[in-house]
Protein backbone atom coordinates (compact mmCIF):
# COMPACT_ATOMS: atom_id res chain seq x y z
CA UNK A 1 0.00 0.00 0.00
CA UNK A 2 1.26 3.45 -0.79
CA UNK A 3 2.16 5.54 2.25
CA UNK A 4 1.75 9.28 2.69
CA UNK A 5 4.18 11.24 0.52
CA UNK A 6 4.99 8.18 -1.55
CA UNK A 7 3.95 7.40 -5.12
CA UNK A 8 0.38 6.22 -5.36
CA UNK A 9 0.00 2.89 -7.13
CA UNK A 10 -2.69 0.44 -8.20
CA UNK A 11 -2.58 -2.85 -6.30
CA UNK A 12 -2.96 -6.30 -7.70
CA UNK A 13 -2.28 -5.50 -11.35
CA UNK A 14 1.30 -6.73 -11.21
CA UNK A 15 2.66 -3.42 -12.50
CA UNK A 16 2.79 -0.12 -10.64
CA UNK A 17 1.32 2.90 -12.32
CA UNK A 18 3.19 5.93 -10.98
CA UNK A 19 1.17 9.07 -10.45
CA UNK A 20 2.04 12.55 -9.27
CA UNK A 21 2.85 12.70 -5.54
CA UNK A 22 0.06 14.25 -3.51
CA UNK A 23 -0.15 16.26 -0.31
CA UNK A 24 0.62 13.67 2.36
CA UNK A 25 -2.09 14.31 4.99
CA UNK A 26 -4.80 14.56 2.33
CA UNK A 27 -3.48 11.41 0.71
CA UNK A 28 -3.83 9.55 4.02
CA UNK A 29 -7.49 10.56 4.28
CA UNK A 30 -8.35 9.75 0.67
CA UNK A 31 -6.29 6.62 0.06
CA UNK A 32 -6.07 4.86 3.44
CA UNK A 33 -6.85 1.18 2.94
CA UNK A 34 -7.03 -1.23 5.84
CA UNK A 35 -4.33 -3.90 5.62
CA UNK A 36 -6.98 -6.45 6.56
CA UNK A 37 -7.75 -6.52 2.84
CA UNK A 38 -4.63 -8.65 2.57
CA UNK A 39 -5.77 -11.05 5.31
CA UNK A 40 -7.50 -13.30 2.80
CA UNK A 41 -6.60 -13.66 -0.86
CA UNK A 42 -9.14 -12.01 -3.13
CA UNK A 43 -10.31 -13.72 -6.28
CA UNK A 44 -8.39 -12.35 -9.32
CA UNK A 45 -11.58 -11.12 -11.00
CA UNK A 46 -12.65 -9.32 -7.83
CA UNK A 47 -9.26 -7.69 -7.36
CA UNK A 48 -9.24 -6.48 -10.95
CA UNK A 49 -12.69 -4.93 -10.68
CA UNK A 50 -11.86 -3.35 -7.31
CA UNK A 51 -8.88 -1.65 -8.93
CA UNK A 52 -11.07 -0.31 -11.74
CA UNK A 53 -13.65 1.03 -9.30
CA UNK A 54 -10.93 2.60 -7.15
CA UNK A 55 -9.56 4.43 -10.17
CA UNK A 56 -13.04 5.60 -11.18
CA UNK A 57 -13.76 6.93 -7.69
CA UNK A 58 -10.37 8.64 -7.43
CA UNK A 59 -10.75 10.26 -10.84
CA UNK A 60 -14.35 11.40 -10.62
CA UNK A 61 -14.67 11.96 -6.86
CA UNK A 62 -16.83 10.02 -4.40
CA UNK A 63 -19.95 12.00 -5.35
CA UNK A 64 -19.87 11.03 -9.01
CA UNK A 65 -23.00 9.03 -9.82
CA UNK A 66 -21.49 6.78 -12.50
CA UNK A 67 -18.49 5.83 -10.40
CA UNK A 68 -20.68 4.98 -7.42
CA UNK A 69 -23.05 3.05 -9.65
CA UNK A 70 -20.05 1.07 -10.89
CA UNK A 71 -19.27 0.16 -7.29
CA UNK A 72 -22.89 -0.90 -6.73
CA UNK A 73 -22.76 -3.05 -9.85
CA UNK A 74 -19.62 -4.75 -8.56
CA UNK A 75 -21.31 -5.54 -5.23
CA UNK A 76 -24.44 -6.81 -6.99
CA UNK A 77 -22.37 -9.18 -9.13
CA UNK A 78 -20.35 -10.32 -6.11
CA UNK A 79 -23.59 -11.16 -4.29
CA UNK A 80 -25.02 -13.20 -7.15
CA UNK A 81 -21.88 -15.10 -8.16
CA UNK A 82 -20.08 -16.40 -5.07
CA UNK A 83 -18.32 -19.08 -7.09
CA UNK A 84 -16.57 -16.46 -9.20
CA UNK A 85 -15.92 -13.75 -6.61
CA UNK A 86 -15.82 -15.72 -3.35
CA UNK A 87 -18.18 -16.06 -0.39
CA UNK A 88 -16.59 -13.11 1.45
CA UNK A 89 -16.40 -10.87 -1.59
CA UNK A 90 -18.59 -8.06 -0.21
CA UNK A 91 -16.59 -7.90 3.02
CA UNK A 92 -13.36 -7.82 1.01
CA UNK A 93 -14.69 -5.01 -1.17
CA UNK A 94 -15.63 -3.05 1.96
CA UNK A 95 -12.15 -3.40 3.42
CA UNK A 96 -10.36 -2.79 0.14
CA UNK A 97 -12.27 0.36 -0.82
CA UNK A 98 -12.97 1.72 2.66
CA UNK A 99 -16.77 1.37 2.74
CA UNK A 100 -18.96 -0.29 5.36
CA UNK A 101 -20.96 -3.27 4.14
CA UNK A 102 -24.36 -1.70 4.83
CA UNK A 103 -23.54 1.13 2.42
CA UNK A 104 -22.36 -1.31 -0.21
CA UNK A 105 -25.62 -3.26 -0.06
CA UNK A 106 -27.52 -0.01 -0.61
CA UNK A 107 -25.30 0.74 -3.61
CA UNK A 108 -26.15 -2.70 -4.97
CA UNK A 109 -29.85 -1.84 -4.68
CA UNK A 110 -29.31 1.03 -7.10
CA UNK A 111 -27.63 -1.30 -9.59
CA UNK A 112 -30.57 -3.72 -9.26
CA UNK A 113 -33.18 -1.00 -9.73
CA UNK A 114 -31.66 0.54 -12.89
CA UNK A 115 -29.53 -0.97 -15.63
CA UNK A 116 -26.53 1.00 -16.86
CA UNK A 117 -28.46 2.08 -19.96
CA UNK A 118 -31.34 3.28 -17.81
CA UNK A 119 -28.94 5.18 -15.58
CA UNK A 120 -27.35 6.92 -18.56
CA UNK A 121 -30.80 7.97 -19.78
CA UNK A 122 -31.63 9.36 -16.33
CA UNK A 123 -28.42 11.37 -16.22
CA UNK A 124 -29.24 12.99 -19.56
CA UNK A 125 -32.32 14.58 -18.00
CA UNK A 126 -31.93 17.82 -16.09
CA UNK A 127 -33.99 18.82 -13.11
CA UNK A 128 -35.74 22.09 -12.41
CA UNK A 129 -32.40 23.41 -11.13
CA UNK A 130 -30.57 22.19 -14.29
CA UNK A 131 -28.74 19.57 -12.23
CA UNK A 132 -29.03 15.84 -13.06
CA UNK A 133 -30.48 13.51 -10.47
CA UNK A 134 -27.87 12.57 -7.88
CA UNK A 135 -26.79 9.18 -6.63
CA UNK A 136 -28.08 10.02 -3.14
CA UNK A 137 -31.55 10.48 -4.67
CA UNK A 138 -31.25 7.09 -6.31
CA UNK A 139 -30.25 5.50 -3.00
CA UNK A 140 -33.52 6.66 -1.45
CA UNK A 141 -35.65 5.59 -4.41
CA UNK A 142 -33.93 2.22 -4.90
CA UNK A 143 -35.41 0.91 -1.65
CA UNK A 144 -38.86 0.95 -3.27
CA UNK A 145 -39.83 -2.38 -4.87
CA UNK A 146 -42.52 -1.02 -7.18
CA UNK A 147 -40.91 0.09 -10.45
CA UNK A 148 -43.79 2.46 -11.24
CA UNK A 149 -43.36 4.22 -7.90
CA UNK A 150 -39.62 4.53 -8.49
CA UNK A 151 -40.35 6.21 -11.81
CA UNK A 152 -42.85 8.53 -10.11
CA UNK A 153 -40.30 9.71 -7.53
CA UNK A 154 -37.62 10.18 -10.18
CA UNK A 155 -40.00 12.43 -12.11
CA UNK A 156 -40.82 14.39 -8.96
CA UNK A 157 -37.14 14.97 -8.23
CA UNK A 158 -36.48 16.19 -11.76
CA UNK A 159 -39.63 18.31 -12.16
CA UNK A 160 -39.64 19.87 -8.69
CA UNK A 161 -35.93 19.94 -7.94
CA UNK A 162 -36.38 18.01 -4.67
CA UNK A 163 -33.41 17.77 -2.34
CA UNK A 164 -32.52 14.37 -0.86
CA UNK A 165 -34.02 15.41 2.48
CA UNK A 166 -37.27 16.54 0.83
CA UNK A 167 -37.46 13.33 -1.16
CA UNK A 168 -36.95 11.19 1.93
CA UNK A 169 -39.67 13.09 3.84
CA UNK A 170 -42.09 12.64 0.93
CA UNK A 171 -41.42 8.90 0.59
CA UNK A 172 -41.83 8.35 4.33
CA UNK A 173 -45.05 10.41 4.48
CA UNK A 174 -46.62 8.47 1.60
CA UNK A 175 -45.64 5.15 3.16
CA UNK A 176 -47.26 6.10 6.45
CA UNK A 177 -50.40 7.38 4.69
CA UNK A 178 -50.78 4.14 2.75
CA UNK A 179 -50.00 1.92 5.73
CA UNK A 180 -46.78 0.69 4.16
CA UNK A 181 -44.49 2.01 6.88
CA UNK A 182 -42.28 -0.97 7.78
CA UNK A 183 -42.08 -2.08 11.38
CA UNK A 184 -38.83 -1.36 13.16
CA UNK A 185 -36.85 -4.53 13.77
CA UNK A 186 -35.07 -3.50 16.99
CA UNK A 187 -32.74 -6.55 17.30
CA UNK A 188 -31.69 -6.18 13.66
CA UNK A 189 -31.15 -2.44 14.10
CA UNK A 190 -29.04 -2.96 17.23
CA UNK A 191 -27.02 -5.64 15.46
CA UNK A 192 -26.36 -3.18 12.64
CA UNK A 193 -25.31 -0.54 15.18
CA UNK A 194 -22.82 -2.95 16.75
CA UNK A 195 -21.33 -3.77 13.37
CA UNK A 196 -21.13 -0.12 12.31
CA UNK A 197 -19.63 0.92 15.65
CA UNK A 198 -16.93 -1.74 15.39
CA UNK A 199 -16.19 -0.68 11.82
CA UNK A 200 -15.93 3.00 12.71
CA UNK A 201 -13.81 2.32 15.80
CA UNK A 202 -11.32 0.50 13.58
CA UNK A 203 -11.25 3.43 11.15
CA UNK A 204 -10.71 6.01 13.89
CA UNK A 205 -7.83 3.98 15.30
CA UNK A 206 -6.37 3.85 11.82
CA UNK A 207 -6.67 7.63 11.51
CA UNK A 208 -4.95 8.05 14.88
CA UNK A 209 -2.03 5.93 13.76
CA UNK A 210 -1.64 7.30 10.24
CA UNK A 211 -3.19 10.74 9.99
CA UNK A 212 -2.35 12.42 13.30
CA UNK A 213 1.45 12.17 12.82
CA UNK A 214 1.01 13.72 9.37
CA UNK A 215 -0.72 16.75 10.91
CA UNK A 216 2.67 17.92 12.24
CA UNK A 217 3.38 19.06 8.71
CA UNK A 218 2.51 22.45 7.27
CA UNK A 219 -1.23 23.24 6.91
CA UNK A 220 -2.82 22.08 3.64
CA UNK A 221 -2.98 24.33 0.58
CA UNK A 222 -6.21 26.30 -0.03
CA UNK A 223 -7.60 23.83 -2.58
CA UNK A 224 -7.39 21.01 -0.01
CA UNK A 225 -8.25 22.99 3.12
CA UNK A 226 -11.94 23.29 2.17
CA UNK A 227 -12.26 19.48 2.07
CA UNK A 228 -10.80 19.16 5.55
CA UNK A 229 -13.09 21.88 6.93
CA UNK A 230 -16.12 20.13 5.44
CA UNK A 231 -14.98 16.80 6.86
CA UNK A 232 -14.43 18.36 10.30
CA UNK A 233 -17.93 19.86 10.32
CA UNK A 234 -19.43 16.49 9.39
CA UNK A 235 -17.53 14.79 12.19
CA UNK A 236 -18.76 17.37 14.71
CA UNK A 237 -22.32 16.62 13.61
CA UNK A 238 -21.59 12.88 13.87
CA UNK A 239 -20.28 13.23 17.43
CA UNK A 240 -23.31 15.31 18.42
CA UNK A 241 -25.77 12.75 17.06
CA UNK A 242 -23.84 9.83 18.56
CA UNK A 243 -23.96 11.52 21.97
CA UNK A 244 -27.73 11.79 21.69
CA UNK A 245 -28.05 8.12 20.71
CA UNK A 246 -25.73 7.05 23.54
CA UNK A 247 -27.72 8.98 26.15
CA UNK A 248 -30.95 7.37 24.97
CA UNK A 249 -29.33 3.92 25.01
CA UNK A 250 -28.02 4.53 28.55
CA UNK A 251 -31.52 5.43 29.68
CA UNK A 252 -33.01 2.44 27.86
CA UNK A 253 -30.53 0.08 29.51
CA UNK A 254 -31.40 1.48 32.94
CA UNK A 255 -28.17 3.41 33.50
CA UNK A 256 -28.46 6.82 35.22
CA UNK A 257 -28.72 9.62 32.63
CA UNK A 258 -25.65 11.75 32.06
CA UNK A 259 -27.61 14.84 33.13
CA UNK A 260 -28.48 13.40 36.57
CA UNK A 261 -27.20 15.52 39.47
CA UNK A 262 -24.02 14.15 40.94
CA UNK A 263 -22.98 14.87 44.59
CA UNK A 264 -20.51 17.74 44.77
CA UNK A 265 -17.43 17.93 46.98
CA UNK A 266 -19.26 20.37 49.24
CA UNK A 267 -22.16 17.93 49.61
CA UNK A 268 -19.76 15.13 50.48
CA UNK A 269 -18.00 17.28 53.11
CA UNK A 270 -21.32 18.26 54.66
CA UNK A 271 -22.35 14.60 54.79
CA UNK A 272 -19.08 13.75 56.57
CA UNK A 273 -19.61 16.55 59.12
CA UNK A 274 -23.13 15.31 59.82
CA UNK A 275 -21.81 11.79 60.36
CA UNK A 276 -19.10 13.13 62.72
CA UNK A 277 -21.69 15.12 64.71
CA UNK A 278 -23.87 12.05 65.03
CA UNK A 279 -20.89 9.99 66.21
CA UNK A 280 -19.88 12.63 68.77
CA UNK A 281 -23.47 12.90 70.02
CA UNK A 282 -23.57 9.14 70.46
CA UNK A 283 -20.27 9.17 72.42
CA UNK A 284 -21.51 12.00 74.63
CA UNK A 285 -24.74 10.14 75.33
CA UNK A 286 -22.84 7.02 76.31
CA UNK A 287 -20.53 9.03 78.59
CA UNK A 288 -23.50 10.74 80.21
CA UNK A 289 -25.26 7.44 80.83
CA UNK A 290 -22.05 5.96 82.31
CA UNK A 291 -21.55 8.94 84.65
CA UNK A 292 -25.17 8.83 85.73
CA UNK A 293 -24.83 5.14 86.52
CA UNK A 294 -21.71 5.78 88.66
CA UNK A 295 -23.50 8.56 90.58
CA UNK A 296 -26.40 6.26 91.30
CA UNK A 297 -24.01 3.56 92.56
CA UNK A 298 -22.24 6.04 94.85
CA UNK A 299 -25.58 7.25 96.25
CA UNK A 300 -26.62 3.68 96.97
CA UNK A 301 -23.30 3.01 98.75
CA UNK A 302 -23.63 6.16 100.88
CA UNK A 303 -27.18 5.23 101.85
CA UNK A 304 -26.08 1.74 102.89
CA UNK A 305 -23.10 2.92 105.04
CA UNK A 306 -25.09 4.08 108.22
CA UNK A 307 -27.09 0.87 108.23
CA UNK A 308 -23.87 -1.17 108.14
CA UNK A 309 -22.42 0.89 111.02
CA UNK A 310 -25.46 0.27 113.25
CA UNK A 311 -25.35 -3.43 112.51
CA UNK A 312 -21.69 -3.57 113.45
How does this model look, in words?
This protein has 312 residues and is an all-alpha fold. The chain is built from 13 helices and no strands. Helix 1 (24-31) runs antiparallel to helix 11 (186-214). The longest helix is centred in the C-terminal third of the chain and has 47 residues, at 265-311.
Largest sheet: none
Shape: globular
Beta content comes to: under 5%
Give the quaternary arrangement of the chains. single chain
Count of DSSP-assigned helices: 13
Coarse structural class: mainly alpha
Order of helices and strands: HHHHHHHHHHHHH
Mean pLDDT over the residues: 75
Offer a few descriptive terms:
312 residues, mainly alpha, 70% helix, 0% strand
Brief description of this entry?
The chain has 312 residues and is an all-alpha fold. It contains 13 helices and no strands. Mean pLDDT is 75; it is low at 1-39 and 305-312.
Secondary structure layout:
Layout: H1 24-31, H2 44-60, H3 65-80, H4 82-85, H5 89-97, H6 101-113, H7 116-124, H8 135-142, H9 147-160, H10 164-177, H11 186-214, H12 222-252, H13 265-311
Helix pairs in contact: 1-11, 2-3, 3-6, 6-8, 8-9, 8-10
Amino acid sequence: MARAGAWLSCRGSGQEEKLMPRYTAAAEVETTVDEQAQAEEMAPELRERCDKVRKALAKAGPQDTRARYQLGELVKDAMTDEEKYGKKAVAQIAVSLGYDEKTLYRYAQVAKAWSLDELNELLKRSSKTDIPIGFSHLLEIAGIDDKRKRKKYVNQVLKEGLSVRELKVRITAERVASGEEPEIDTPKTLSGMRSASKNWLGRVRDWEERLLPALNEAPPPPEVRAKFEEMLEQQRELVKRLQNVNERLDSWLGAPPASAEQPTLKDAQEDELEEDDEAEASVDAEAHDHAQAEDEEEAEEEAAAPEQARTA
